[in-house]
Amino acid sequence: MTSVSRKYDLIVLGATGYTGRLTAEYIQEHITTDLKWAIAGRNGSKLSRLADDLKGINADRVQPGLEVVELNRDDLQQLAQKTQVLISTVGPFAKFGEPVVEACVKSKTHYFDITGETPFTLDMLQKYHDLAKKNGVVLAPHSGVDSVPADILTYLCVQKIRQTYGVGVRESINVLHELGGGPSAGSLATMVSLIETYSFQFTHCALRPYALSPIPPPKAAGTVSLLDRLLASRYIPPFGVVTHFPQAECDIGIVHRSWGLYEQGKYYGDKFRFYEYQIIGRRLKAFLTHYTVSLVRTALRLLPPFRWLVKRLLPPSGSGPPKSEFANYRVFFATVATADCEPTRRVMASLNYKGSPYYLTGVLVVQAALTLLEGGDTLGRKLKGMVTPATWGMELVDRMKQAGVEFRVSLLD
């Protein structure tokens, strides 16, 4: 951690936004009462109302400080200098994220966020990773539902295969079964923001499977057939027919970065490849869904009037599913990994959480930050620079379990 004493242990930036508020509420209700923390945002009156609401949740703890800040370099630099860890929930990150990262790196403040915007992540990796390492700063993007479940489940599968068979992993496939709650306004604005911020060429490069990896990709061929790619579906036992999952575009890059960070790829295995899908049931439905989404994305990039219309129709910033519906939601992912041995051996790990994925994102980013603040000698702490959820290892898994996330790991065959 930083050697200089700071006013706060942790600051939540963007606390009056939809996910930021849920993050602050989780800290207020569930995190140790001696944590020195603050809520930060641009609107002082909204922060004051949030502070009153938080006090109603738990009046018997250290109440958060209030930090009114504009999203400019000077204000953000002053904010970052006050804390050991800054959690940013201010999206779209392609639009608002870089000044926050820059302020943290220059202030020697550890940075966590909930982005799922891989082009932004690659941009920050190229610009700030080396300086962050030099300054002893951790940059931990993708610390929410994008991409903790995929990264941690793959890590658990690799660990189980290593312990059981003593070999690496040839292939890991993560499948979404359930993700309750529709997209928030921020999520819907992200696609438009990425298109307006980054060129097609840069975005295409960022979405390559190993774009975030610190080492070159393995030479082993992939396992997805040309026909499956054309039909936008694949049959995977024991899940059945699966199809493209939009979140895969961020999770694949992060998991492959974890592969490269763990012993230069040797721990996961020199043939390791990761894929991600969602349950679909029927190939025709998969085909229609995939190509409809692709058509919309193409129209957003190539047709400015269509993009303008979509922006006009977006719900107001900071909106999302009401908390009264959270009890009806569930988050469930399962990962199957194939050991690099003959005969074939497979391991399955699953993650189950009863509640909203947006609330879970707040849980995950806070627990990841606390793993750094309070935890032991994890790989992420050793490495510095841009790390991944998997580099927090079993310490983060244990914290997630204590927060109500259920894990199961078993041998399939």
TrEMBL record:
Q: GO:BP terms for this protein?
A: glycolipid biosynthetic process
Q: SUPFAM superfamilies in the record, alphabetically? A: NAD(P)-binding Rossmann-fold domains (SSF51735)
As given in the record, the signal peptide range reads none
Please report a single Pfam family linked to this protein.
Answer: Sacchrp_dh_NADP
Q: Pinpoint the Saccharopine dehydrogenase NADP binding domain residues.
A: 11-138
* Gene3D superfamilies the UniProt entry points to: NAD(P)-binding Rossmann-like Domain
Q: Which family does it belong to?
A: Belongs to the saccharopine dehydrogenase family.
Q: What is this protein called?
A: Saccharopine dehydrogenase NADP binding domain-containing protein
Which organism does this record belong to?
Cladophialophora psammophila CBS 110553
